[in-house]
Specification:
Layout (H helix, E strand, L loop, with lengths): L7 E5 L26 E10 L2 E11 L4 E5 L6 H9 L6 E6 L2 E2 L7 E4 L12 H11 L4 H14 L15 H13 L5 E5 L7 H18 L2 E5 L3 H7 L2 E5 L7 E7 L10 H24 L8
Parallel strand pairs: 4-9, 4-10, 7-8, 8-9
Antiparallel strand pairs: 1-11, 2-3, 2-5, 5-6, 10-11
Helix pairs in contact: 2-3, 2-4, 3-4
The structure holds adenosine-5'-triphosphate (ATP) and magnesium ion (MG).
Pfam family, one: ABC_tran
Organism: Rhodococcus opacus (Nocardia opaca)
Protein name: ABC transporter ATP-binding protein
């Protein structure tokens, strides 16, 4: 089925500096109540010892926006996400979330990791999802109600009494997502959350995440290596350059109507541009590691 679109637009950022247009601009998803907070990254630099991982990063994430972050392995995507969560202190520049400087753990943010090893194996699924509300003082009835609500949201209404070890990889990731959402974060940071899943499960979860994002109205920053995934989910796709001193290379606005039709000519066109853009950075990254393209 062909879904009518309003087209897709590539917005190269001018090489080294990100140009994220319109800080408070409305997110182009009609009929959706936005609850998400904005994130501003200004002239950010992060180092580990003498190694400068990212440098001069500027990015504005709009309230309720879904931003996907792509770039070569090792360029600093997870590092940037961790800095937004407040897990890593920048060497230079700053990050603000809803206007407050991120300094220590970001109270607006919830993080979903690639691996669902973060689940508490000794707790039931319900207890895992209710963990955050319990820590915030919710009584037992509210914990059960909240867990049931979010398990239903991720398509696991009957799994509450199971233990994580009894679940498939896809189910475990759904539980992880429900556990993060149960804290009602206004910023959800996702680091390759579907990276370890098979292609079919991945596609199902992408569609579900799109639905959940529209329903909750939160802001999402989502790291992936999968261009298709980014074009399914993102309002904007941000491409990082090869490290060291990785920067934001380009930003693509994706206006195609949701749910996205991957076969639409505009989406195919953007896929090809993104593929070439990222491939150039992957080659640069390998070259920086002493590996030439003809050796690949
Ligand atoms: N805690 C740390 N201490 C020292 N170096 C680190 C640390 N965390 C990450 N790095 C280095 O920082 C660089 C960026 O790592 P990061 O994990 O952010 O990359 P990435 O873009 O997420 O890669 P991938 O796509 O493979 O997940 C890498 O060179 C990595 O070795
Ligand atoms: Mg990573």
């Amino acid at each position: 089925m062909t879904v009518p679109t309003r087209g897709t637009t590539a917005v190269p950022s001018g090489g080294t500096t990100a140009v994220a247009s319109g800080g408070q601009a409305a997110v182009p998803t009609s009929g959706r109540t936005v609850t998400g907070v904005p994130v501003e990254v200004r002239d950010l630099g992060i180092s580990f010892g003498a190694a400068e991982i990212v440098s001069g990063i500027d990015l504005e994430v709009r309230p309720g926006e879904f931003v996907c972050l792509l770039g070569p392995s090792g360029c600093g995507k997870s590092t940037l996400l961790s800095a937004m969560a407040g897990f890593i202190e920048p060497r230079a520049g700053e990050i603000t979330c809803n206007g407050d400087e991120v300094n220590g753990s970001n109270p607006h943010a919830g993080m979903v990791f690639q691996s669902s090893e973060a689940l508490f194996e000794w707790m039931t699924v319900t207890q895992n999802v209710a963990y955050g509300p319990r820590m915030h003082g919710a009584n037992k009835a509210d914990q059960a109600r909240i867990a049931a609500e979010y398990l239903a949201m991720v398509g696991l209404p009957h799994a509450g009494k199971k233990f994580p070890a009894q679940l498939s990889g896809g189910m475990r990731q759904r539980v992880q997502i429900a556990r993060v959402l149960a804290n009602q974060p206004s910023l959800v940071l996702m680091d390759e959350p579907f990276g370890a899943l098979d292609a079919q499960t991945r596609q199902v979860l992408q569609v579900e995440l799109d639905r959940i994002w529209r329903h909750t109205g939160c802001t999402v920053v989502f790291v992936t290596h999968d261009i298709d995934e980014a074009l399914t989910l993102a309002d904007r796709v941000v491409v990082m350059s090869a490290g060291p001193k990785a920067r934001i290379k380009s930003i693509y606005e994706v206006h195609a109507q949701r749910p996205r039709d991957r076969a639409h000519p505009d989406v195919i066109d953007m896929y090809e541009k993104l593929r070439d853009d990222i491939r150039a950075e992957v080659v640069a990254s390998l070259r920086n590691q002493g590996i030439e393209e003809d050796q690949l």
